[in-house]
Structure formats: structure tokens, C-alpha cells
Amino acid sequence: MRAIIQRVTKASVTVGEEQISSIGRGLCVMLGISAEDTQRDADYLIRKILNLRLFQDENGRAWSKSVMDLDYEVLCVSQFTLQCILKANKPDFHAAMPAELAQPFYDSILESMRSVYKPELIKDGKFGAYMQVHIQNDGPVTIELTSPTGPTDPRLVCC
User: Fold this and answer.
1) How far apart are the C-alpha atoms of 134 and 53, rounded to whole Å?
2) Which of 33, 30, 50 is nearest to 42 (CA)?
3) Distance CA 35, CA 33 (A)
4) Digits of tens for pLDDT over the chain (159 positions)?
5) Which site from 1, 48, 66, 144 is most exposed, i.e. has the minimal number of CB atoms within 10 Å?
6) For residues 59 and 81, what is the distance between their CA atoms, to the nearest angstrom?
7) Kind of enzyme, top EC level (predicted)?
8) Are 126 and 15 in contact (CB under 8 A)?
9) DSSP at 151
10) Residue 156 falls within a domain, yes or no?
11) Cβ atoms of 129 and 15 closer than 8 Å
């Protein structure tokens, strides 16, 4: 499982002309689920996302506070393209979990996040939809995380 985590002052997801969700200060998380991911991978990333110290404290000390410490929001967006493997110049997405399995797994990740943190502060896009994600980066601060178990099939390991 891969996650791109961006510290934001605000972010929103729009499908067509409809805004699906939006947040103020917090994290925008693009989440790519691989065919080999398990609950262990999900638990690792949930813990990291909610506890990463990407914000300053009240005294201005950088890298001191997490979203949970500050009651900030999290916007999660499912993004299978994070499981891309390049074949020459063409992207291949076979490492991604098939949508019919990924959607319930993704939903369970959101529910786990909501059970650990304040449910009203965990937002998401629309699974499988073509979305416009509007992000106002703060910093910018962008962190890439890969769950430690990672893929075991050597064909799925990208550069």
C-alpha cells in the first residue's frame, strides 16, 4: 500500500460539477492499494497518517504535532495509479487491487480511521470516480509512505 500525504491549508474533491467533500487545515492523502495488501498494511498506514508530526506546535516548533493533536481534518482519496509499474513508457496498473475488492477494503480503512480519530474529521472522495482534487499545499510538505510488508512478487516491485 502506498500513500502520498500532503499537508494542506484546504482541499476538496469535485465530481462533475458537484463538490463531494472538503477540508480545512489538515492532510490530503492519496491512497493506492495493491493486490497483495492486507489489514496489516492498512493498520500501519492508518497509524502513520494520524500520528505523523507534520505541524508546528503553539510555540512555532516545527514537526511537533499531528492531525490528531490539533483536531485537523484528513481527506482520503483512493488512487490506484500509485500502484503503477512502467513497461517502457506505458503505465501498467495490474499491481493494483481490483476495484471490486479494493472498494470494501478502502471503506474499511476509512472506518478504521474514523474509529481511532474523530469520524467527522475523516473525509473522502468518491471511489472509482473521475475526480478533480483541489489542494492548497502548506509548505509544501509531501510525504510518501509505503507499508512495510510491500509486494512480495518481484514483478510488482517498482524501481
Assistant:
1) 23
2) 33
3) 7
4) 999 999 999 999 999 999 999 999 999 999 999 999 999 999 999 999 999 999 999 999 999 999 999 999 999 999 999 999 998 999 999 999 999 999 999 999 999 999 999 999 999 999 999 999 999 999 999 999 999 865 555 555 554
5) 144
6) 39
7) hydrolase
8) yes
9) -
10) no
11) yes
- The pTM score is 0.90
Q: Are 14 and 21 in contact (CB under 8 A)?
A: no
Closest among 99, 97, 103 to 124, alpha carbons compared: 103
Q: Give residue 7's domain range.
A: 2-147
Structural domain includes residue 155: no
Under a CB-based contact definition with an 8 Å cutoff, are residues 26 and 8 in contact?
yes
- 4-to-80, 88, 153 alpha-carbon distances in Å: 12, 24, 22
What 3-state DSSP class applies to 26? strand
CATH number of 121's domain: 3.50.80.10
**51 touches 5 (CB < 8 A):** no
DSSP string covering 83-102, please?
G-EEETTEEE-TTBPPHHHH
Q: Which three cell numbers stand for residue 70?
A: 490539533
Query: Grid coordinates in use for 155?
Result: 514483478
Domain count across the chain = 1
* Residue 131, domain member (yes or no): yes
